[in-house]
Prior knowledge:
Strand content: 5-15%
CATH architecture of the largest domain: 3-Layer(aba) Sandwich
Number of strands: 9
Largest sheet: 5 strands, parallel
CATH superfamily of the largest domain: P-loop containing nucleotide triphosphate hydrolases
Helix content: 40-55%
Shape: globular
CATH class of the largest domain: Alpha Beta
Strand order of the largest sheet: 2-5-8-1-9
Distance between the termini: 24 Å
CATH topology of the largest domain: Rossmann fold
Amino acid sequence: MSAHPAGERVDPRDAALRRAVAALETIVLGKPRQIRLCLACLLARGHLLIEDVPGVGKTTLTHALAHVLGLAWQRVQFTSDLLPADIIGVSVFDRATQQFRFRNGPIFTQLLLADEVNRASPRTQSALLEAMEERQVSVDLTTYRLPDPFFVVATENPHEELGTFALPESQLDRFLMRITLGYPEARFERELLTTGERRDLLSGMDPALDAASVVRLQQAVRAVHVSDPLLDYVQTLIQRTRERADLKLGLSPRAGQGLIRAAQAWAYLSERPAVLPEDVQAVLPSVAAHRLEQREPAGAVDGESLAAELMKRVPVPI
């Protein structure tokens, strides 16, 4: 986050958010952009997909997010035999009352880590759809509201690994962003090798925020101004994806709304009152890459390259 001009009063929420960013960068070394994207995704009321090889810190990042932001969290290890009831919950017959009583599953939390989500069957993956879109679950004709905030962080192994199921387009479209962490730079990897498990540092850290503060920040993000020329720019970007014959699908209206919210969150993290084209460009690859897929898989260009090409071809508004 940028610094306030000298003498200007600092909003306590901004100061707490800065402390959260600094704490996260202490735990997850050398990944400032990914940390900022995670926070933008949360502040935009979206959900996050982290795709990468095992062992690069996906779970550590999620644990650190929950601790530093003061959110209750649950981790569910997705496997091929996991059932929807293992996530949502189940109705249990109570002999004392002679009635069925619903027992909450791990989805009833503020931050849900769906670890290796693509190792579960499509049926189990679909258990997340209603929760991610409507922030509620329906069981036995009864609807149960989920906590606020509600943030799903799902990790995904590369598709070429054994025992994985590709996420369908309907599921991918419910993730506002997809990011990768990648291997650390040599200097940060040396620190990891010499200092050990970074999650151990969390026990000595106090949360910088709490759930109520996160909700207030989400509301503040929605107030970041979006001008008409900026909306024109976003609409042009979306329309160009729909005009390309080599893509299976263009960006959906849900993706367009998410792009605006993510750009508002990025602008807020930069302490700007209005969204600039550079805010849209900062989040576009993470918002669009997992939604853009070429029709011909052989020699296909990855989604991030397609997003980068898109930004080059669409003029930036003045």
